[in-house]
Model the fold of this input.
Amino acid sequence: MAKDTKARILGAALEMFSQRGYAGTNIRELTASLGLGKSSMYRHFESKEEIWDALLDEMIAYYATRFGSAEHLPPVPDSLEGLVGMTLRMVDFTVHDARIIMTRKLLTIEQFRDERARSLATKHFLTGLTDMFTPIFAGMMEKGLIRRDDPAMLALAYTAPISALIHLCDREPEKTDDALRQIEAFSRHFVRVYGAERGIRQYTSTTSL
Done:
């Protein structure tokens, strides 16, 4: 029961922080939204700052296990079409999972106030994606699917436009379907430009079926 209450507190805190920011979230309102008294809240967390830190810890783990990270890499694709498919699955998750959306909004708001939020925003919006795709591209080069190049530069070139379109979905949700189409078109353009001869032959035969 205590574990369930703690999870409920963190869930409500994520929703409020992502909408109002840290400063705009009031502990009294947070407890009231859960039907709890402040004394019940403080049995689980000593302060709003402790809730904040626990929430970030939880979301780091949630993101890494469900989306991936440099420490939790997805398998290296066996084809260029496999790269496109993997990318679209990852993007679909990140633009439709409610907790990930709220976390991204929270980090966007709080990156200018909180040092840890700033570091996490940099990681999740830029460096973490580059770090994850660098070994993926290196592995695809070893398989002869992508032509030889600097894998870190390819990872940056690949992930930056996709990340920008994901943020567009957050700002203007009504454009999500169009953004997803642009991401797929960009991914397919990328593999046509950077695919090695073997990968392109395989990709062409697959997409022409």
Notes: The two ends are 54 Å apart (CA to CA). The longest helix spans residues 115-142. The mean pLDDT is 89. The domain at 67-207 is CATH 1.10.357 (Tetracycline Repressor; domain 2).
